[in-house]
Amino acid sequence: MSEQDIQDWIGKQIAGNEVVLFMKGTKTMPQCGFSMQIAQILGHLGVDFKDINVLEDMSVRDGIKAYSNWPTIPQLFVKGEFIGGCDIVREMFQAGELQELLTAKGVAHNAQTQIA
Amino acid sequence: MAMAADEIARLIKESFPDAEVRIEDLAGDGDHYAASIVSEAFRGKTRVQQHQMVYEALKGHMGGTLHALALKTTAP
Predict the structure, then answer these.
(1) Interchain CB distance below 8 Å, B72 and A91
(2) pTM for this one?
(3) Which superfamily does CATH assign the domain made up of A3-104 to?
(4) Do B47 and A85 touch (CB under 8 A)?
(5) I need a surface site. Which of A32, A47, A72, A95 has the fewest CB within 10 A?
(6) Out of 3.20.20.80, 3.40.430.10, 3.30.300.90, 3.30.70.2740, which CATH number does the structure's domain B5-74 have?
(7) Do residue B60 and residue A87 have CB atoms under 8 angstroms apart?
(8) DSSP string covering B15-42, please?
(9) A58-86, pLDDT tens digit by residue?
């Protein structure tokens, strides 16, 4: 696939799923602590999300960095919008802002604020 | 590959001369850092924009020679 094809494919994943997490590993088997943190937060909030394992495809791993102008993985997208990486998502979760954002965007979730 | 904390601070200071920069070597291995940066330049910017500004200042090191840098950015 050409670079443009990759960008198109990434765009389609983001447009076609309410919540998408580009991560190392999968939601059931994360292979990086940062990816795991976001998967755990989403799981804790009961958010249904699509996980895309960048370790399976180097071109997606590089492509997503170009797509969002963001140099690291994981990357979270909600309703087409880039929300951030691990630090931002964790900060937002702890402040309750992630829950507010999900509500504002009409994404089903439960309202917990703490990881037990 | 690793990067010295001083070098990270220097690059950040270069782009944000007013910044108060604190860098912590999390694992003591020169590869996993946490940086907190306070700069007027962040005012009115979203978190994503603030972090993108820092990544820009690091000139491509992030995700390359610099594996892990937890960022906390705020305006004073």
Answers:
(1) yes
(2) 0.89
(3) Glutaredoxin (3.40.30.10)
(4) no
(5) A95
(6) 3.30.300.90
(7) no
(8) H-TT-EEEEEESSSSSSEEEEEEE-GGG
(9) 999 999 999 999 999 999 999 999 999 99
